[in-house]
Specification:
This protein has five domains: 54-275, Rossmann fold (3-Layer(aba) Sandwich), CATH 3.40.50; 283-507, no CATH class; 515-685, no CATH class; 712-852, no CATH class; 865-919, no CATH class. It has 38 helices and 23 strands. With 930 residues, it is an alpha/beta fold. The chain is 46% helix and 9% strand. It is elongated and about 160 Å long. Helix 8 packs across helix 10 (181-190), helix 11 packs across helix 13 and helix 15 packs antiparallel against helix 16 (326-335). The strands form seven sheets. Strands 2-5-6-1-7 form a five-stranded parallel beta sheet, sandwiched between helices. Strands 11-12-15-16-17 form a five-stranded mixed beta sheet, sandwiched between helices.
Length: 930
């Protein structure tokens, strides 16, 4: 069944739900109760016990008190000493209501169990005395039970027995001198059983410290009285003394308070039993009982808790180990509707702050939280750290009251609020915004780290606890991980390290980074992006890649190249005059200052204009982080800041690479139909995992824009359509030139693809023939048709021949051979008028007879020393290749070098050249003087 939100399973007490509570209500006041002036929930015994969770310590203390006043044993003196707000006064109130005899046990929830443990059938009535130090003025007398009293002993005597009891110690009261233990025993015996409850006594003692002449008596006389009182309580048999003492220096308030605590601990320490009313895990039930009505749908509660448990079991790496233990399910049920992680952060982290009252502080905060969530119709399954509405002033102020100055702006800007950065992240990312992921993560990190900025040895809240504080069943952990990454990259006061996250009032280096980033100019950013683009090593199926190159830097050669345009030359869909197309047009038509010849060999990759701004911004951040990391010594960065700078640089570097890949999502392809104007086809090449080169290569090959394998049928089709309509043949080099130049022809990767198609084509008689040349009589020399051959050359003499023409020549030669016989040579045929497309030929010569064929070639040429590689390559292709391809040919090439240096060759050059000549096995070499 569908899981129910907490508001459908349990309801807050009406005063909490309606926001009618006062923060002071959570500060129990024993004096106000004794005077009948307290709030109803504290004043009325039935209501008090209905809202009070009896902890193990409180239950034990009540039982022992019942035993003591009924004469069955029990400790006579009990000292309550817990952390600030730990429930001392609440425990004294429980004793007051239980022992003053005003309400029966049946009207106090849980009292039957205590009576049974004490072996009693009914509550033993006792005379209860209340002394609250903060309520007493030591400088003036006061009226108690119709008697004017001045001191603590006078006050206690008057409460126990009125004027009669006071009469026993009247002189001691008037003179401010402590009475003896015997007088106190007599008073307590007459009023037995007597219960004396003392709260905030250290505050009273601190006020009279080192002050003389007070009606209350001196500090020393009051300390002496405490010692006498503890002795008298023990001797009186059924009397009980319970006093609360502070646990922290925060509650002492002054030097006098410290002296008072030290002195009182020595006196109480002789006879008392130290009691700690609230155990560390009992706060859950205390808060739940005080703020909520009982669960109205137990099965719905259990199903929600089981769903959380299943989520933790099914995703073990994402959550702490403790969540998968069986007792954690019990904790969730006990803390419902509050997630145990929220209580853990408050009781374990926030209670370590001196100002934070352990139980009272949690009650104050949770009351504000519950009211706001109830009023805002919160539909969460549980109240979690991530659901705290810190944008509400009542909640924010309750948290900030315990923290040092400076946290207000941190919360408003980096945690929660209408103008906070986490809210902006949620609003700008629908995936995160759907779960309010960024704000939930920010709240969780703040709650788990703000109290420990100074105290923590290992700073921050672990990532597994961040996820524990935000994730509910049915929600994706990945979304919250993504939100955490966004926050880490954006917030000024959020730090991270070792898989921990924390806030600090000191801004991190992000602000410094942002200030520096704003100073980088566009041209500096483009230099960095150019560096990254030129560092791409992939080539894909392109024979060359040129990043951010000018038209003069892109070679005009017959191999397909990809030109990556600079980010400034970006493209926008359906914009035929975009900066990218303008830049590509220039490179397509020109190589520097001269016209480009082989335009069909170029493709272009361009960035999308909508992505460029983000790309430039991220690159600025990288340059900024990089400069901070490199100037760590100059900036006097500490160890953590150095680590932050290094991490920021690494993260921004990776982000820049990703955004670069995302931005370059267009391939621009120049196309042309016949002689019409050039058109540009923009093809999308999306993706953030591969480089622009790899994406463009795959797309170009898949769409047939770049051809790496070309079939002879396709070659024949293009020949028929564009090249040899009215001709019998066409020059091979001429065809390749056409394919390299004209945009209406297929774009072949390089000449090897074209020659492979030719070789494949001449294997059959369906496409074309190949000849190494055309004789003066029009006869095709070395005609190959219908058979495989490796002797295919891309030169000015070779031609492709139409099949019918090739067939005709083969048949004619076959017939001629039959007529003349094998020993005769065919006679030259006159020009038959057949039109050839290729290099021009001259007439007037005849074929050499077999015995007159030339058998030797020699030649020499002068090479440009600055372009030797190019010129030597041309010679090898156009001359040497033809000669070495002849069966039985013995080709030798000798390189002759002559160099004249009028000013003389330097000694180091002489040594280097001489050594290299030996290594390269020169036949002759040497230097000489003219």
């Amino acid at each position: 069944m569908a899981l129910k939100p907490w508001r459908e399973v349990i309801t807050p007490h009406p005063d909490v739900a309606g926001g009618r509570y006062q923060q002071a209500e959570f500060a129990a006041d024993l004096a106000q109760v004794a005077q009948g002036k307290a709030e109803f929930e504290y004043q009325d015994a039935s209501e008090f016990y209905a809202r009070t969770y009896l902890t193990d310590g409180m239950t034990h203390l009540l039982t022992a008190a019942m035993e003591r006043v009924s004469g069955k044993g029990g400790e006579p003196v009990v000292q309550l000493k817990t952390a600030f707000g730990g429930g001392k006064t609440h425990t004294l109130l429980a004793l007051y209501h239980a022992l003053n005899g005003k309400v029966g046990a049946d009207r106090m929830t849980g009292m039957g169990k205590i009576l049974k443990a004490a072996g009693l059938d009914e509550l033993p009535p006792a005379r209860v005395v209340v002394i609250v130090g903060e309520a007493l003025n030591p400088t003036v007398p006061r009226i108690v039970n119709g008697v004017e009293v001045r001191t603590l002993w006078g006050d206690i005597a008057a409460q126990l027995g009125g004027a009669k009891a006071y009469g026993r110690i009247a002189e001691a009261d008037k003179k401010g001198v402590s009475p003896g233990a015997d007088d106190l025993v007599a008073i307590m015996t007459e009023a037995a059983p007597a219960v004396i409850l003392m709260d905030e006594l250290v505050a009273y003692m601190g006020n009279i410290y080192d002050v003389q002449g007070l009606p209350s008596g001196s500090f020393d006389s009051n300390i002496a009285f405490i010692q006498s009182l503890t002795e008298a309580t023990k001797r009186s048999g059924t009397s009980l003394l319970v006093a609360s003492l502070p646990f922290s220096k925060l509650e002492l308030g002054s030097k006098g308070g410290e002296a008072a605590l030290e002195a009182m601990e020595r006196r109480f320490g002789r006879l008392e039993e130290i009691w700690k009313p609230v155990g560390p895990t009992e706060g859950f039930e205390i808060v739940r009982r005080r703020l909520f009505n009982p669960v109205k749908d137990v099965e719905a509660r259990d199903e929600v808790c089981r769903a959380f448990a299943r989520m933790y079991d099914e995703n073990p790496p994402d959550f702490p180990q403790e969540c998968r233990e069986g007792q954690y399910l019990d904790r969730m049920k006990g803390a419902y509707p509050v997630h145990p992680e929220l209580f853990d952060r408050l009781y374990n982290d926030w209670s370590s702050l001196e100002k934070f009252q352990r139980t009272r502080g949690v009650l104050r905060l949770m009351a504000a939280v519950i009211h706001q969530l109830w009023a805002n119709d919160d539909r969460s399954l549980l109240m979690m750290p991530g659901t705290l509405p810190m944008y509400e002033p009542s909640v924010k102020n309750e948290l900030l009251r315990y923290l040092p100055e400076g946290w207000d702006s941190v919360v408003d800007n980096d945690v929660d609020g209408v103008r906070s950065q986490p809210q902006a992240i949620d609003e700008g990312n629908p995936r995160l915004g759907a779960l309010v992921a960024a704000r939930r993560v920010a709240r969780t990190v703040f709650l788990g780290s703000a109290p420990h900025v100074k105290q923590q040895a290992v700073r921050g809240i672990e990532d597994v606890r961040v996820r524990l504080g935000v994730t509910q069943p049915g929600e994706s952990v990945a979304v919250f991980n993504d939100a955490t990454s966004h926050l880490t990259a954006s917030l000024t006061h959020l730090y991270s390290g070792n898989r921990r996250y924390w806030y600090d009032t000191r801004p991190n280096l992000r602000r410094t980074m942002e200030e520096r980033a704003d100073k980088f100019r566009d041209d500096e950013v483009e230099v960095e992006l150019t560096r990254r683009l030129r560092s791409i090593r992939e080539r894909g199926d392109f024979r060359g890649v040129h990043a951010c190159a000018s038209s003069g830097e892109v070679p005009d050669e017959q191999v397909v190249r990809l030109v990556i345009l600079p980010p400034s030359a970006s493209h926008r869909p359906n914009q035929p005059d975009s900066p990218a197309i303008a830049r590509a047009n220039d490179i397509l038509n020109n190589r520097g200052t001269i016209p480009r010849t082989y335009g069909n060999m170029l493709l272009f990759a361009a960035a999308d204009s909508e992505y460029v701004d983000d790309l430039m911004k991220e690159t600025r951040q990288y340059l900024s982080w990089n400069s901070i990391a490199e100037e760590a010594d100059v900036l006097n960065l500490d160890t953590h800041q150095r680590r932050e700078a290094t991490t920021g640089r690494q993260r921004s570097n990776e982000a820049t690479d990703t955004r670069l890949k995302e931005a370059y999502c267009w391939m621009l392809v120049p196309t042309q139909v016949g002689t019409n104007p050039v058109q540009w086809e923009a093809t999308r090449i999306s993706g953030s995992q591969e480089s622009p080169v790899t994406k463009a290569s795959k797309k170009a090959k898949a769409d047939g824009i770049l051809i790496t394998a070309f079939g002879p049928a396709l070659l024949r089709m293009e020949l028929d359509k564009w090249i040899w309509q009215d001709s019998s043949d066409v020059g091979v080099k001429r065809v390749w030139e056409c394919f390299s130049r004209y945009l209406y022809l297929p774009r072949l990767q390089d000449e090897s693809v074209f020659l492979a198609a030719v070789r494949e084509g001449i294997r059959s008689r369906d496409f074309f023939g190949y000849a190494s040349g055309v004789g003066e009589d029009g006869r095709y020399l070395g005609l190959q048709f219908g058979r495989a051959s490796s002797s295919i050359f891309l030169d000015g003499q070779s031609v492709l021949v139409k099949p019918d023409v090739a067939v005709a020549q083969i048949q004619a030669e076959s017939e001629k051979t039959t007529e003349t016989g094998p020993g005769d040579y065919p006679q030259p045929k006159p020009d038959n008028g057949v039109k050839h497309i290729g290099e021009p030929r001259t007439g007037g010569t005849t074929l050499f007879p077999e015995e007159e064929k030339v058998t030797r070639f020699h030649g020499s040429v002068t090479l440009d020393a600055t372009r030797m590689g190019r010129d030597a390559g041309n010679i090898a292709q156009e001359v040497v290749q033809h000669l070495s391809g002849i069966v039985g040919a013995d080709v030798k090439i000798t390189l002759e070098i002559q160099a004249r240096v009028p000013d003389g060759v330097p000694d180091n050059v002489v040594r280097t050249v001489t050594e290299n000549c030996r290594t390269l096995k020169f036949t002759t070499h040497g230097f000489e003087k003219e």
